[in-house]
């Protein structure tokens, strides 16, 4: 599966740079920057240049920063009607590492299956909420033990 990362400014490139430090150099991955003065047509051309280099049967997954942003809108227009492609929003370092790991561990996975594998509740965490939940679980165990 080929990954195409896109975001506003140089966000996608910097996420890849960071991921390479954690995960190692990744292959089958391209980055598309979206710079001031560009538009969805510019992005669609950039995406299409990458897609044209991929085998016709290769799965392609777009990881983009914002739902409804230009990188998403351009990818969405390309993906519509394409069974071998999908777009996932919320690009982050943990998402990229997870997607790369899923791609490596689940050989032959389809782009449309990656979203379900990512575990959509795993990227946003609150220290206070986690501590509160842990305290509640301890209280529940203590209460069950006493009964």
Please explain how this structure is put together:
The chain is α/β, with parallel strands linked by helices. The protein contains six helices and four strands, in the order E-H-E-H-E-H-E-H-H-H. It has helices at 11-23, 40-53, 70-79, 93-105, 111-118, 127-146, and strands at 2-8, 29-34, 60-64, 85-89. Helix 1 (11-23) crosses helix 4 and helix 2 (40-53) packs across helix 3. The model has no long low-confidence stretch (mean pLDDT 90).
In short:
The chain has helices at residues 11-23, 40-53, 70-79, 93-105, 111-118, 127-146, and strands spanning 2-8, 29-34, 60-64, 85-89.
Number-wise, the strands total 4
Gap from first CA to last CA: 53 Å
Largest sheet: 4 strands, parallel
Q: Assembly state here?
A: single chain
Q: Hey, roughly how much beta strand do the residues contain?
A: 15-25%
Comma- or semicolon-separated keywords:
elongated; 4-stranded parallel β-sheet; alpha/beta; 6 helices; 147 residues; 53% helix
Task: Summarize the helices and strands and which ones pair or pack.
Blueprint: E1 2-8, H1 11-23, E2 29-34, H2 40-53, E3 60-64, H3 70-79, E4 85-89, H4 93-105, H5 111-118, H6 127-146
Parallel strand pairs: 1-2, 1-3, 3-4
Helix pairs in contact: 1-4, 2-3
């Amino acid at each position: 599966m080929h990954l195409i990362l896109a975001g506003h400014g140089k966000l996608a490139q910097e996420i890849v740079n960071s991921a390479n430090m954690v995960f190692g150099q990744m292959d089958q991955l391209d980055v598309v920057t979206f710079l001031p003065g560009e538009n969805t047509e510019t992005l669609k051309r950039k995406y299409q240049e990458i897609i044209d280099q991929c085998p016709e049967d290769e799965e392609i997954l777009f990881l983009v920063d914002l739902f409804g942003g230009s990188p998403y809108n351009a990818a969405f227009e390309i993906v519509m009607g394409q069974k071998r492609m999908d777009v996932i929003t919320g690009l982050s370092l943990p998402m990229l590492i997870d997607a790369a790991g899923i791609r490596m561990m689940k050989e032959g996975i389809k782009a449309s299956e990656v979203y379900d594998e990512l575990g959509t509740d795993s990227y946003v965490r609150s220290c206070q909420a986690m501590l509160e939940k842990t305290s509640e679980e301890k209280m529940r165990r203590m209460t069950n033990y006493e009964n």
